[in-house]
Design goal:
Number of strands: 19
Structural class: alpha/beta
CATH class of the largest domain: Alpha Beta
Shape: globular
Strand order of the largest sheet: 2-1-3-4-5-6
Distance between the termini: 56 Å
Length: 471
């Protein structure tokens, strides 16, 4: 992609700010105080997009509610990665027929990755007539104009053209959490894993300029954010399109020079592009968390080839060994898919054996979910779901035992944690995270939120640690 075609010109962004003011003036003339409900599904990139939507809405004069019945505008910000999430979205769209019946002036919008899929936008156009606005990730920066068109024309608006994608800098964001923040460093994906719809809906890889990322992180640190996660569909590809001889490891090193008390995390990281330089940089940087999310997806070389992952089991093992060698105590997590089309029980057990060999701290585990339009969706898939469930249960059994054992090993130790919010457990009212992103539920007062403290670990289970602040 040519760089001049990637960056949205300032004149176009200024035009969107004009539309923001038009919407704001419209509500002011009505002496109305509009409220919006933004419901986000899926990954952290979607969360970051949702925060930008809220930032633009705030500029348009909207306040926010979590209750669709109270909202003048409801936005479903969607994920296309798994069938279950898609069905939840369609279920929620159905429910919104009732809120719109109660409030005919309510605007219903569908955006995000699902909206970019042609089959989805067609289904919404034909079967969900109460949806007023549909736009994909590529059109997010034009949201003020699209919303104005709905108000001005009283007609449905669809903005789902197939595009490579752009980068729009300077869009405001409403971050609901004053401790954690997400920062997108790049967008899109060039990998085309055979099971994944993301390259088709997010477009080609495009990196933000280093100066823009550094400025945003510096602003967040100065504003008091303590846990900042850098986002990309594959952060290891950062910089490939910049023609600067500057990669993701260089970006981490430059961010690390920003003064302050904070942690930097990143995701997702593709094994085929993970380098010794990246791991050496992580080990050297004081602000970069000793945590690595490195999806391996399958322990079978044949299945990895079918997935188009472009590495082998042995290569993945070598990466992990090197990373752990330069970062003792590294917390390692991963993504795993069980039941890929054509996978045998023996191949699924190769995945389980890799989990046993490596000893992950935690896994995000999935039974294969076919995504229409991907290569894998057209492959024969003769194994019944019930059989895949047995393989999946075996994987969970192994990983849960490992996680429980690892967590038990922390009991009696003192760990540095960031208290990041309130817990839903009355006995441990605070939620916190270690540098390795382990959840620690704590006793103590809300005055600790936003602070790094030392915590003595008093208990554990498979999913969390429990502790108390040290005096």
């Amino acid at each position: 992609m040519e760089r001049e075609k990637v960056l949205v010109p300032e004149a176009d962004l200024s035009r969107q700010r004009e539309f923001q003011q038009r919407v704001r003036a419209m509500f002011a003339a009505r002496e109305a105080h509009p409220r919006a409900c933004v419901d986000t599904f899926g990954c952290q990139q979607n969360v970051a997009d949702g925060q930008k939507l809220m930032g633009m809405l705030e500029q348009m004069g909207f306040a926010f509610t979590r209750e669709p019945r109270e909202a003048d505008l409801v936005i479903l910000n969607t994920c296309a990665v798994r069938e279950h999430a898609e069905q939840r979205v369609f279920g929620n769209l159905g429910i919104l027929t009732h809120t719109k019946r109660e409030n005919p002036e309510q605007i219903v919008a569908l955006c995000g990755c699902m909206a970019q899929e042609e089959r989805v936008s067609k289904r919404v156009r034909e079967s969900y007539r109460h949806v007023d606005l549909v736009f994909g990730p590529h059109a997010l920066w034009r949201f003020p104009e699209l919303l104005w068109q709905v108000y001005e024309t009283k007609k449905r608006v669809f903005a789902v053209a197939d595009e490579d994608g752009t980068i729009a800098e300077g869009i405001p964001a409403v971050r609901e959490d004053g401790v954690k923040a997400w920062v997108s460093v790049m967008y899109g994906c060039n990998n085309f894993c055979s099971y994944c719809i993301v390259p088709y809906v997010r477009g080609r890889e495009r990196s933000r300029e280093p100066a823009a990322v550094l400025a945003e992180v510096r602003q967040l640190v100065e504003a008091g954010y303590r846990d900042i996660t850098l986002l990309g569909q594959n952060v290891n590809s950062y910089g490939n399109d910049l023609d600067l001889d500057y990669d993701f490891a260089d970006l981490l090193a430059d961010i690390d020079r920003i003064p302050g008390e904070y942690l930097i995390r990143f995701m997702s990281s593709h094994p085929k592009d993970a380098t010794k330089k990246l791991f050496d940089t992580m080990a050297r940087c004081s602000h970069v968390a000793r945590q690595l999310h490195l999806p391996f997806q399958s322990g079978s070389d044949r299945i990895l080839r079918e997935m188009n992952r472009r590495y082998t089991r042995a290569q993945y093992r070598a990466l992990v060994d090197y990373a752990r060698g330069v970062m003792p105590g590294l917390v390692l997590t991963s993504d795993v898919i069980i039941g890929f089309p054509g996978e045998t029980e023996a191949e699924a057990m190769e995945t389980v054996s890799l989990v046993e060999e490596i000893g992950f701290d935690a896994l995000f585990t999935f039974i294969y979910s076919p995504r229409p339009g991907t290569k894998a969706a057209a492959l024969p898939d003769p194994v019944p779901r019930e059989e895949k469930q047995k393989w999946f249960d075996r994987l969970l059994e192994v990983q849960n035992a490992q996680s429980a054992a690892l967590h038990a090993g922390y009991v009696g130790k003192t760990l540095r944690v960031l208290v990041d919010g309130a817990s839903d457990d009355p006995a441990y009212p605070l939620s916190s995270r270690t540098e390795g992103n382990r959840l620690v539920r704590l006793t103590g007062s809300e005055g600790l939120i936003g602070r790094f403290i030392d915590a003595r670990i008093t208990g554990s289970n498979t999913w969390a640690l429990y502790g108390e602040p040290e005096e």
